[in-house]
Amino acid sequence: MTLDLPAVAADPLDVLDPEIAEFVRRSMEAGRGYPPRETLSAPQARLLALETRRQWFEGGPIMARTEERMIPTRHGELRMRLHRPEGVTAKGAFLYLPGGGWVLFSVDTHDRLMREYAEAAKMIVIGVDYSRAPEARFPQPVEELDDVLDWLFEHADELGFDPARLAMGGDSAGANLTAATSLKRRDEGKVLPAGMILNYGSYDLNIFTESVVKWGGGSYLLTTHMMVWFQMQYMRTPEDITHPWASPIRAHSKAGLPQTLMVMTDCDVLYDSNIGFEAALREAGVDVTARLYPGTVHSFLEAMSIAKVSRRAIRETAEWLRERVG
C-alpha cells in the first residue's frame, strides 16, 4: 500500500522570512550544548537566557540618558530603568514589560528593544523588572504593576512626561500582564494607561489550540513544553488558569480597556490566542489596531539587528505611539 501524504519540507524554517529564519538558527545555535531551560532551576534558566540572548540585546541606539532606581510596591521594591533618547519630542512615555513566561527575561535581555522604541518614537521608555516566578507566583506581578502605575502617575512630572500620555505594553508574558493590570484597574475605577502595546502575548492559557500543535514542536523557538513549564512556575493552582488576570480573554467584559496596538506573528504557538483576543476586544468596542507580520516567530522583534521585518514592526509601533499618546 502506498500512502498518499504531502511532502515533508526540507527545512521547517523555509516557511519563515529568510532573515527571521537566520534569527531562529542563531538563537538555537547559541543554546546548543546547554540543557533545555525547562529542565533547569529558574535562576539557572535566567542566567542561560541572559547569556544566549546577548547577541540580540547588545548594540543599538545610544541614549542621551539612562537611569535606574527602585520603585516601591506592596510586595517590595522593583528595579526600573528609564531611557531618554536625544531630542525627545513626544510628551508621553512608554512603560515596557519584558516577557519570558513570567520566569526568564528582564530589562537587561530587552534593553536594546526598549532603546530602539525610545529612539524611533523620540519618547521616554521605562522598563520594569516585575518579580519573576516561581519566587513570585500569580497574582503578585499584577499587583506589583498596579502599584508601579500609581507610582509613575504620581512621579511623572519628576521623570519628564505627561501622566495622561503613559502607554503600557510588553511582549509575551509582558503583554499578558499589561492586559491583566488594565483589567484590574478598570474594575477598581483607577486611571488606565493611555494605550496598550501587546506584542505576541498570551491571553488564554488554554493550550488546546491548533497553533499550539502546529508551531510548538521545537522548530520555532517557543515550544509547547516550555509553555507548560512556564504555567507550572507561575500558577498557584490549576484553577488560576481561568482567572481573568491570568487569561484576560476570559474576563466577563473587555469594554473600557485602553486603545490597543497588537503585534502578531503567524508562526507562533500563541497565534490563536492573539486572533481570539483581538476579536474579543473589537466585539467589546475597544479601539484595536492589529498588525500581523508574516513569516515571523515568537520573539521576532529581538531580531532587529538582522531583520528588516523586525525594524519595520518597531518603527510602525513607534509611529502608533507618537500618533496616539505622544
TrEMBL record:
The keyword Hydrolase applies. Signal peptide: none annotated. InterPro entries: AB_hydrolase_3, AB_hydrolase_fold, GDXG_lipolytic_enzyme. Coiled coil: none annotated. Pfam families: Abhydrolase_3. Residues 95-301 form the Alpha/beta hydrolase fold-3 domain. Keywords: Hydrolase. GO terms for molecular function: hydrolase activity. This is Acetylesterase. It comes from Pseudooceanicola lipolyticus. The lineage of its organism: Bacteria, Pseudomonadati, Pseudomonadota, Alphaproteobacteria, Rhodobacterales.
